[in-house]
Amino acid sequence: MQASIFVQSHVSAHAELTWLLECATPVGWLNRMIQFKEKSRKQGEDVRAALMTYPVLMAADILLYQADLVPVGEDQKQHLEFTRDIAERVNSTFGGRNWKKRGGRGGNVFKVPEPLIPPDGARIMSLQDGTSKMSKSADNDASRINLTDSPDVIRQKVKRCKTDSFLALEWDIPERPEATNLLTIYQLATGKTKEEVLTDVSGMNWGAFKPLLTDALIAHLQPIQTKYKLIMQDPCYVDDVLARGAAAASETAFATLDLVKDAMGFVVPARRA
After folding, report:
1. Which pLDDT tens digit goes with each residue over 61-73?
2. 39: annotated active-site residue
3. Exposure class string for 52-62: b at 16+ Cβ within 10 A, else e
4. Model pLDDT, residue 137
5. CA distance 30 to 37
6. Which residue in the list 77, 100, 111, 136 is annotated as catalytic?
7. Please, which residues bridge with residue 116 across strands?
8. How far apart are CA 196 and CA 202, in angstroms?
9. How far is CA 235 from CA 146, 147, 229, in A?
10. For residue 272, what pLDDT is reported?
């Protein structure tokens, strides 16, 4: 099965659906979003309206493609619940018999997606703070492992990552968030079970474990980085993949957008360029 890879802004249906969904979204729902609360406290009066409405854009990204399942981490569960709420609100307000009476298709406008949360590694934490999530937008680059980090950079980041003063390595101990996080990263990089990981690290201290984790991360990322370097040598190929992906995505996205417009009472374009 192949995925369509495209640049979001190259499919204008995302922006169009966002505005339509904003027309159906209560402000109170947006005020409750945790990420907006946290970031608005930091930014103060400089906070932008787009930050507040960003969850609506995320909902549009999902609902445009009538997804059944959406792979998310634990930190994104609220956003998916928000998406489900919007889908159900649009379905109940504009779909069903009301839509049918207006000459439309009737039934639900959107599928209501379910979360697909991985059993392990659903929430990876910062290398500098085991209680904060790892984020690509964090100011401190040392807090994360980037897919394109060189072996030397990975080695330095793991060497300097935060640990604790306990000797043995243990999992799922509330007082030891860094231990749980680093063991989880090792598990994901190696594809091993928890039991196998605990066997690997039995009797180890942090000094012995960090090189083991470093080697696992480097080995895990090596084929990805090799493929990345190969692809980036041919910019025309990348442009072609993105163009074909946008064309394929647009076909589904605009079909959904037309359904939404019809259900909400807009005049749907007879033809698209």
Report:
1. 999 999 999 998 8
2. yes
3. bbbbbbbbbbb
4. 83
5. 9
6. 136
7. 71
8. 10
9. 21, 19, 11
10. 54
With H, G, I as helix, E, B as strand and everything else as coil, classify residue 127.
coil
Q: Which residue in 77, 133, 162, 192 is the catalytic one?
A: 133
Check if 133 is active-site.
Answer: yes
How far is Cα 56 from Cα 62, in angstroms, rounded to an integer?
Answer: 10
Res 53 pLDDT > 70? yes
The pair of three-digit structure tokens given for residue 195, joined into one six-digit string: 């039991």
Please pick, among 39, 77, 162, 261, the residue that the annotation labels catalytic.
39
Residues near 30 by Cβ (< 8 Å), separated by ≥ 6? 36, 52, 53, 55, 56
Query: Pairing between strand 114-116 and 69-71?
Result: parallel
| pLDDT for residue 22 is more than 60 | yes
DSSP strand E in the chain: where?
A: 69-71, 114-116
**Got the DSSP string for 79-119?**
HHHHHHHHHHHHHHHHSHHHHHHTTS--S-SS---EEE--S
Query: Using CA atoms, how far apart are residues 14 and 198, in angstroms rounded to an integer?
Result: 45
* CA–CA gap between residue 127 and residue 133 (Å, rounded): 9
Residue 22 sits at the vertex; the CA angle it makes with 79 and 45, to the nearest 5 degrees, is 80
Predicted confidence (pLDDT) per residue in 232-255, tens digit: 999 999 999 999 999 999 999 999
Q: pLDDT for 169-180, tens place per residue?
A: 999 899 999 999
Active site residue 136: yes
